[in-house]
């Protein structure tokens, strides 16, 4: 079941990935675990405006602490461009 979860997202937490150490993103310097993503979305208004399926990174959390919504959106847009160009 957890193979189908979008890890690093609040949706992943809601879908059952609640263990910090059990998430594949555990220990990553750039990605958050599903639990960290869900907590960040609850704490930061900027991140609460994103869709639940958006992967939240540590850089996005740093920007959200400064209420830099445009910076967060730039990271999201860049990630979508990479996904579109990846076969």
Description:
This protein has 87 residues and is an all-alpha fold. It contains five helices and no strands. It has helices spanning 10-14, 34-43, 45-48, 58-65, 69-85. Helix 4 (58-65) runs antiparallel to helix 5 (69-85). The longest helix is centred in the C-terminal third of the chain and has 17 residues, at 69-85. The mean pLDDT is 89.
Give the helix/strand layout:
Elements: H1 10-14, H2 34-43, H3 45-48, H4 58-65, H5 69-85
- What kind of oligomer do you see? single chain
Strand content: under 5%
Percent helix:
40-55%
The largest pleated sheet is described as:
none
Uncertain segments of ≥5 residues (pLDDT<50)? none
Number of strands: 0
Radius of gyration: 12 Å
Structural class estimated from helices and strands:
mainly alpha
Cα end-to-end separation: 25 Å
Q: Give the averaged pLDDT, no decimals.
A: 89
Task: Give the key terms.
87 residues; globular; 0% strand
In short:
With 87 residues, the chain is mostly helical. Helices cover 51% and strands 0% of the residues.
């Amino acid at each position: 079941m957890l193979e189908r979860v979008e890890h690093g997202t609040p949706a992943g937490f809601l879908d059952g990935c609640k263990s910090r150490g059990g998430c594949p993103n555990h220990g990553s310097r750039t990605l958050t675990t599903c639990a960290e993503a869900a907590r960040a979305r609850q704490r930061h208004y900027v991140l609460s405006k994103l869709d639940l399926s958006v992967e939240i990174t540590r850089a996005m959390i740093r920007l959200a602490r400064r209420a830099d919504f445009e910076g967060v959106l730039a990271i999201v847009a860049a990630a979508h461009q990479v996904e579109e160009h990846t076969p």
